[in-house]
Design brief:
It is built from 3 helices and 35 strands. Helix content is about 5%, strand content about 40%. Strands 11, 12, 13, 14 and 15 form a 5-stranded antiparallel beta sheet that branches. Strands 1-2-3-4 form a 4-stranded antiparallel beta sheet. The protein has a 4-stranded antiparallel beta sheet with strand order 7-8-9-10. With about 400 residues, it is mostly beta strands. The chain has a domain at about 280-405: Lipocalin, CATH 2.40.128.630.
Length: about 400
């Protein structure tokens, strides 16, 4: 198992490595999902821009930015090899943006948390507009450790997971920040293992999963470790999902675990042929769990028993969380195919590429989650071209690029 953990860490390290050189040094490419809030979709492009778009305007081909649309380029300082000095490059963002009351919060791999105000960004004002509720943490040029998961907002607090080096070891740290001003409310004790996850918050408790197999609980008020934690034999690869007091998480041992808070053993576990990398979706008493083995599993949330006669086989790895759209669950493969699956039967159909039957649906890899907006499912592949999928008609309705120079 140690070898397996080293393998996945090596794979992820390759994805985020930064090349050398004075002027050609580039940041790693991010991957984030789309998020829908009100009449707006929020996304982070692979070149470090936070973008707010109105799907109705994009469908009608209105020049960007239309009313209420904006983009903001996030940069970070990098130093070239061989003492070449520093330069500003596009920040890398892996976690999805989190909208809240006209604002949007993101965390960067370079160790910054930003809160942006939509009206200020639409007016292209200097960042941050403090009176409008904009801030960055830390406020100075200092940074915290890399942020890979998305922030989590609960009440008037923002929770962020990071990883840092302490006494020669990599440890995880959770930060709680004031929603309005970005003030640091508390910093958790050092936790064993990397925290490359989005924290889950439920009933005043913050839940995190670590690469070394821990589930930790912390007080949302103080950051103190809770009385319950759980240690698995293998590390956890997915962010935690908390539903009615049960924590669901995928492990490096290729199993999905359901663990009741306070329990010393899993309520159930289900083994796939690869990792349950993405966070499952829940509808009623069924958990829809995608796996890197290319299958979508429908499991009873209380027992872990399969609901479908057979899991839906998408044919290639699934790295993105699915979306429930009415009586269907929509899933994308890492290769860029989109499937619409009946939630009751597990029968599914592939959404065809509008230009070529031989091509994947989207012509690009998909690593991040989707958003449901007015009946359409929006998908953001690595080529930054958003596709709007009609799950009823089983077709791509329209597309637009986030690279709107």
């Amino acid at each position: 198992m140690k070898g397996l953990r080293v393998l996945i860490l090596a794979m992820l390290a390759v994805a985020i490595v930064v090349g050398g050189g004075c002027t050609s040094r580039s940041a790693p490419q991010g991957f984030t999902g789309l998020v829908s809030s009100g009449d707006t979709l929020y996304a982070c492009s692979t070149d470090g821009r936070i973008v707010a778009v109105k799907p109705d305007l994009r469908a009608n081909g209105v020049a960007f930015p239309g009313s209420g649309e904006w983009e903001y380029a996030v940069t970070t300082e990098t130093r070239g090899a061989f003492g070449c000095g520093s330069s500003q490059v596009a920040a890398t963002i892996y976690g999805s943006p989190v909208p809240q009351n006209g604002h949007v919060c993101v965390g960067t791999y370079s160790g910054k948390v930003l809160m942006l105000d939509g009206e200020s960004r639409s007016a292209s004002l200097a960042f941050p507009q403090v009176r409008a509720g904009e801030w960055q943490y830390p406020r100075t040029e200092d940074t915290i450790g890399p942020i890979v998961g998305a922030p989590a907002i609960d009440g008037n607090r923002v929770f962020v997971c990071s990883s840092t080096r302490e006494d020669g070891q990599t440890v995880g740290v959770v930060y709680a920040l004031d929603l309005t001003y970005g003030d640091e409310l508390w910093v958790s004790p050092a936790l064993n293992g990397k925290l490359w996850v989005t924290p889950a918050v439920a009933e005043g408790v913050v839940y995190v999963t670590t690469f070394d197999g821990h589930i930790y609980t912390l007080s949302a008020d103080t950051g103190d470790l809770g009385p319950w934690s759980y240690k698995a034999e293998a590390g956890f690869v997915s962010s935690p999902l908390v539903h009615n007091g049960t924590v669901f998480a995928g492990s490096f041992d290729r199993s999905l675990y359901a663990i009741r808070r306070g329990a010393s053993a899993p309520q159930w576990s289900y083994r796939g042929d690869n990792w349950f990398w993405a966070t499952p979706a829940v509808a009623g008493d069924v958990l829809y769990a995608p796996n890197m083995d290319g299958r979508l599993y429908a499991l009873n949330i209380d027992t872990g028993d399969p609901v479908w006669a057979e899991p839906f086989d998408a044919g290639s790895a699934i790295a993105a969380s699915p979306v429930i759209a009415g009586s269907n669950v929509v899933v994308t493969t890492k290769d860029g195919d989109v499937f619409v699956v009946d939630i009751a039967t597990g029968d599914g159909v592939r959404v065809p590429n509008p230009e070529s039957d031989k091509a994947t649906t989207l012509n690009s890899r998909v690593i991040s989650g989707m958003a449901l907006h007015k009946g359409l499912v929006y998908v953001l592949p690595q080529n930054d071209i958003v596709s709007a999928i009609d799950p009823v008609a089983n077709r791509v309705e329209f597309e637009f690029s986030l690279r709107m120079e």
